[in-house]
Amino acid sequence: MNGMNHIRKQNYQTLDLTYTALGAVLIVLCSWISIPAAVPFTMQTFAVFFVLAALGGARGTASIFVYILLGTVGLPVFSGFTGGAGRLLGNTGGYIVGFLFTGLAYWLVTRLFGKTRVVQLLALAAGLLAVYAFGTAWFLFVYARTSGSVGLAAVLGWCVFPFLVPDLLKLALALYLARRLSPLLSLTQR
């Protein structure tokens, strides 16, 4: 009996790794769908929301971490087929790093309150606010060091306000698709 439990556990770990890798690949592919701007409009946030809602907090957050790690080592996984630590350390790198906060917020909130549609929606919205807060603070700091002082209202106008409605639409679409597809894919969320 102990041998069977070991096999099941090993298969489950393999499944976790597979789903995590597929989640990271989806984020990469969606980051390449881009409309250039000061902060590019991408489908990256859609993928982050979808991966979390479809795979669960643990696997989804791991997928986000793998995505960021791939970009950090120089693979061209970020928008515009870019990569490297310099991209993360630039003005908009905080928004990419902030995706980890979305994952952690989703994981914590759904673990504490369950995975009802409303809880998932609120967890993803809280994660989006965390991305905006961290990314904006990062932008203010890096921009001030490289280009001079800039006001919060200006940065919000460049990096947050234009993205609010599109990001909320992506959130709703990702949650809808994840809830529809998860049973078809037989995903056991963790």
Summarize the structure.
The protein has helices spanning 2-31, 44-55, 57-72, 85-89, 93-113, 117-146, 152-159, 161-185; strands at residues 34-35, 41-42.
Essential attributes:
globular; two-stranded antiparallel sheet; Arp2/3 complex 21 kDa subunit ARPC3; mainly alpha; 190 residues; 2% strand; 2 strands
Fold and architecture overview:
This protein is mainly alpha-helical and 190 residues long. It has one domain: Arp2/3 complex 21 kDa subunit ARPC3 (Orthogonal Bundle), CATH 1.10.1760. The protein is 77% helix and 2% strand. It has 8 helices and 2 strands, in the order αββααααααα. It has a two-stranded antiparallel ribbon with strand order 1-2. Helix 1 runs antiparallel to helix 2, helix 1 packs across helix 3 and helix 5 runs antiparallel to helix 6.
Please specify the SSE layout and strand pairing:
Elements: H1 2-31, E1 34-35, E2 41-42, H2 44-55, H3 57-72, H4 85-89, H5 93-113, H6 117-146, H7 152-159, H8 161-185
Antiparallel strand pairs: 1-2
